[in-house]
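User: Can you predict the 3D structure for this chain?
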Amino acid sequence: MKKHVAFTVGASLASVLCVSAANAQTVVTTSSPSRETVGGPNSALLGSGLFAFGIPYVASVIVAAESDHAGDKNLYVPVVGPWMDFAQRGDCGGLLQPSCDRETGYKVLLAADGILQGIGAIEIVGALLMPETHTVMTVATEPRIKLGPSRVGRSGYGLSAVGTF
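Assistant: Here is the predicted structure, written as structure tokens:
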């Protein structure tokens, strides 16, 4: 359980701290100028949310599968499972009960697990509610030629052509 939480806390905090807003602009060349806005889920927030939610949840499922404690079976439930397990932790320090140090450690880990899963779920929902937009601008590429007088050599004049092809 301690390895589960240490790994979960470290990975989730790293993903939450590494979130950055992503803005993209694409320039496409066509024959007529126009502007188009394309949207979709916020990819940075979605990726961070999947990571922040996924790592603690996978660790919770592993603990739920391997643990003998009845309350740990609630860890199969995403986001609220750690809190249900937290509420079902029994008393400690009695004659046939686990030590309070161990149970307190488990409760701290369960709370961290629940918080990180909740943050990840909120990020996933936020990615869908706050989509990122890409502005696609089209630029005209029709051939243009300009003709005009120009100097040729030291003393001559001629005609020059400048343009885009």
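Residues 5-9, 15-30 have pLDDT under 50 and may be disordered. Residues 2-164 form one domain.
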